[in-house]
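Why this split exists: single-chain examples teach little about how molecules sit against one another. For that reason, every record in the complexes split bundles all components of an assembly together and asks for one structure covering all of them. Below is a record exactly as it appears in the raw files.
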Amino acid sequence: MSLTDFLAQLAGARGEHDVVLATMTPAFLWPTVSTSDLDYCYVAPMGSVGPLGLGLALAQPDRRVIVIDGDGSLLMNLGALVTIGAQAPANLVHVVVDNDGYAITGGQPLPGRGGPQIRDLAAAADYREVHEIADPGALSSTDVERIRTVPGPVLLTAHVETVYDRSTLPDLTHSAKALATQGPAGYHNLRAALTA
Amino acid sequence: MIDLFVDALDRAGVHHLVSVANGESAPLYFRLKDDPRFTVIDACREGEAVAIACGLHLGGRRALLSMENFGLYECLDTLRAMPIDARIPIPVLVGYTARPAEGHVDFWNGRFGNIASQAMLAGHWTEPLLERLDQPYAVVDKAEPEHVIEKQLQAALTADVPSYLLVQSF
């Protein structure tokens, strides 16, 4: 299952008023599958999208916040799992794309590859719901419920095929949609939409 | 000085503290933790704390970030990529450990003697680093008159970019 196909499934599953924050490789691809104005995509620093989503979820507790993280990205700030578990935002969904390596930097393996599983670490950090999506290419109705309504913090992992050739990623300037959701402009556009 | 901070934060609508443990701001931390007007979020690491504060701002809330100057060095990349790049107005309270000041003896150089040299060096980095990065900051000294401290607080709380308050003690 390709990452793009999984992201397309995720875009179809999100609620109309849900916010999506995407980082690293998914940040390049998300604007190609999403038509929502409630998106923010950025590529650095690794490990920050979980805490960013936590802050937003605490600021707007009535709104579902979905963050799309990478396995390597999450490991760069592993303590954030503990912080998120302690704050226990019911409206936060933490999606972790699992491809066994750092795709965006050329495919270096994860430290501890084959060792501790991110979902086990999240469960130990008191995430309320932890689940591995069985088929990222065809989300089940319970997967969709976990994304849309199950009280969080929810952590979902999705194993996608390993592609370590970043030349295949779309140019961040490929569309007006991508430009509007990326970087500082993307941040302020989303803030304006959320605080209007 | 704690009362000045609490009142200024309340007036400015800054009702969240995102904190990474540091000795210098501990008195303010515990005061805010006991005040129902404020929500304190404990973070494990400084970069994480920066991102949480940005997320709160993204959702329309304002937060005070609190960390030690050594922690400031830890999170430079997150500061660069998020609040500095995007001009997000976050006040940052920086515990000024090992402040280079004549005759000053703090916990580190008081307890560890020569071993403290590394800490002292790190203290010497703080202000030059912020200057090099073009980041607005003020050294807040509780011995100064209240009106001076109030002015420093107002400047940090009304800035339209990250602004740093270096505090050695409350």
